[in-house]
Amino acid sequence: MKAFLLTLLAQLCLASLVPENEKDPEYWRQQAQETLRDALRLQRLNQNVAKNLILFLGDGMGVSTVTAARILKGQLQNRKGEESLLEMDKFPYVALAKTYNTNAQVPDSAGTATAYLCGVKANEGTVGVSAGVTRDRCNTTKGQEVTSILRWAKDEGKAVGIVTTTRVTHATPSAAYAHSANRDWYSDGEMPPDALEGGCKDIARQLVENIPDIEVILGGGRKYMFPKNASDVEYPQEEKHRGTRLDRRDLVQAWHDTKPPGKVAKYVWHRRDLLALNLSRVDFLLGESRGAPRPPAPRGGWDFCPPPPPPPPPPGGLGVLSGAGPGTGGRIDHGHHEGKAKQALHEAVELDRAIGLAARLTSPQDTLSVVTADHSHVFTFGGYTPRGNPIFGETPPSPPAPAWGHPGDVPAVLTVLPLPGLAPMQSDVDRKPFTSILYGNGPGYKIVGGERENVSAVDFAHANYQAQSAVPLRQETHGGEDVAVFARGPMAHLLHGVHEQNYIPHAMAYAACIGPNRAHCNAAGRTATASPLLLPFLTLLLLLC
């Protein structure tokens, strides 16, 4: 009888989690009909030539991360979460991209960056080169360089920018401008003697020399730009932030030296300096924080992320680029590698805020925006959690009082319903609770007294909590499944179905009439947006997070 009562109480409590309007079948029918009307409107294809291209790249933002971030976003707005929409969810076209590298079933960020930026699949650990290059082998690089969509845009005289919340020399952004047999050759201080003797250039040097007229570069990793042991401008006493260059060059000065006479080039290393700039009077901007921009407390900002800006300034200077940079989230990948799902998911929500800002400042009639990931992670959440269950457990809901019985019955309900963040059951093997968020491998594997750690005894809502994993590793690994591609704007319908990841920049270039495939640009039926008077103002902005 007691078991029956507990089960009934549990069912009553779970039923209370359902919003009243969702109990009415007409709610779901009307929602479906609205979605159908939206889908029918998509039959009128937007075949304009894209004046602007924006690529948002969530590093490590697999499908499970997107779903969990959606729930988190809703719960941060005091909603249940599952019914919420991310900004990327509002994009009308969605595809899947296959992420494998040419020599790896489960990819790394370097080979994937070469795919979605250069349009060519490559070996893991290499950036901006074909699969003919072997990692660490400088002598295999010559003649195997491949160019990126950023280069294609510059070759047509377009304005371009890179904004990243990692180092600007990290594998993810570096494929836009560099060609390297090793993603870790940030400066010549990280390169082996045979690579230096073979004439290979470090990635920071290539940032300055390969495409010197990139209008906007924002990210971290300034130590790779300065001579070895040079003190950092912000942290002069900290050895780990000192310069690393063996050639003794100051690449920030070299960056300034490459700019044409009469053009204004500004270097900033702190958020306050960025906010103080009048971007309409700046032609080139380089901003670098110390390492990767520091991870914030949840819902915080980054070193280079000001609050949402006012409407963009009139054309001139960097006005055309000023609207889309602020508000980027990032380091989703880093959070997952450390098993810190809370950090990873808050980062994904921050990235989504940037996507929403860019959507408000641009028009889908002339701007193609694409959101995707380079790869996934072995991150998952499950365990039959009830609707609206706080995904991390920050705000435990009060259990509803039963409509009948003695108040003393309420604690019994808690033996059936989960604590927030926990699955609503115990393991039927070790009889211990478990969190809904878990990793397939990683640093969260913990044995206490010869058994799996009892998570109810730890603060699993803490920002630095490392979720339990099935296999112990110092760093959690990437996942090998496909990632989502969201698209909005001119020719967005070209991103559909299941694609090889290297297809993405080809579709974007086709939309903007840049790159090698431009025979269609003068075809009948393309709108006036294709006018040569408009195309020179095209912007390509890569937001790599």
TrEMBL record:
<keyword id="KW-0732">Signal</keyword>
<feature type="binding site">
    <location>
        <position position="374"/>
    </location>
    <ligand>
        <name>Zn(2+)</name>
    </ligand>
</feature>
<dbReference type="GO" id="GO:0004035">
    <property type="term" value="F:alkaline phosphatase activity"/>
</dbReference>
<dbReference type="InterPro" id="IPR018299">
    <property type="entry name" value="Alkaline_phosphatase_AS"/>
</dbReference>
<feature type="binding site">
    <location>
        <position position="59"/>
    </location>
    <ligand>
        <name>Mg(2+)</name>
    </ligand>
</feature>
<dbReference type="Pfam" id="PF00245">
    <property type="entry name" value="Alk_phosphatase"/>
</dbReference>
<feature type="binding site">
    <location>
        <position position="478"/>
    </location>
    <ligand>
        <name>Zn(2+)</name>
    </ligand>
</feature>
<keyword id="KW-1015">Disulfide bond</keyword>
<keyword id="KW-0479">Metal-binding</keyword>
<keyword id="KW-0336">GPI-anchor</keyword>
<keyword id="KW-0862">Zinc</keyword>
<dbReference type="GO" id="GO:0098552">
    <property type="term" value="C:side of membrane"/>
</dbReference>
<feature type="binding site">
    <location>
        <position position="170"/>
    </location>
    <ligand>
        <name>Mg(2+)</name>
    </ligand>
</feature>
<feature type="region of interest" description="Disordered">
    <location>
        <begin position="291"/>
        <end position="318"/>
    </location>
</feature>
<keyword id="KW-0449">Lipoprotein</keyword>
<feature type="compositionally biased region" description="Pro residues">
    <location>
        <begin position="305"/>
        <end position="316"/>
    </location>
</feature>
<dbReference type="InterPro" id="IPR017850">
    <property type="entry name" value="Alkaline_phosphatase_core_sf"/>
</dbReference>
<feature type="binding site">
    <location>
        <position position="375"/>
    </location>
    <ligand>
        <name>Zn(2+)</name>
    </ligand>
</feature>
<dbReference type="GO" id="GO:0046872">
    <property type="term" value="F:metal ion binding"/>
</dbReference>
<dbReference type="GO" id="GO:0005886">
    <property type="term" value="C:plasma membrane"/>
</dbReference>
<keyword id="KW-0378">Hydrolase</keyword>
<keyword id="KW-1003">Cell membrane</keyword>
<feature type="binding site">
    <location>
        <position position="333"/>
    </location>
    <ligand>
        <name>Zn(2+)</name>
    </ligand>
</feature>
<feature type="signal peptide">
    <location>
        <begin position="1"/>
        <end position="15"/>
    </location>
</feature>
<keyword id="KW-0460">Magnesium</keyword>
<feature type="binding site">
    <location>
        <position position="337"/>
    </location>
    <ligand>
        <name>Zn(2+)</name>
    </ligand>
</feature>
<keyword id="KW-0325">Glycoprotein</keyword>
<keyword id="KW-0597">Phosphoprotein</keyword>
<keyword id="KW-0472">Membrane</keyword>
<dbReference type="InterPro" id="IPR001952">
    <property type="entry name" value="Alkaline_phosphatase"/>
</dbReference>
<comment type="similarity">
    <text>Belongs to the alkaline phosphatase family.</text>
</comment>
<protein>
    <recommendedName>
        <fullName>Alkaline phosphatase</fullName>
        <ecNumber>3.1.3.1</ecNumber>
    </recommendedName>
</protein>
<feature type="binding site">
    <location>
        <position position="59"/>
    </location>
    <ligand>
        <name>Zn(2+)</name>
    </ligand>
</feature>
<feature type="binding site">
    <location>
        <position position="172"/>
    </location>
    <ligand>
        <name>Mg(2+)</name>
    </ligand>
</feature>
<dbReference type="GO" id="GO:0031214">
    <property type="term" value="P:biomineral tissue development"/>
</dbReference>
<comment type="subunit">
    <text>Homodimer.</text>
</comment>
<keyword id="KW-0106">Calcium</keyword>
<feature type="active site" description="Phosphoserine intermediate">
    <location>
        <position position="109"/>
    </location>
</feature>
<keyword id="KW-0091">Biomineralization</keyword>
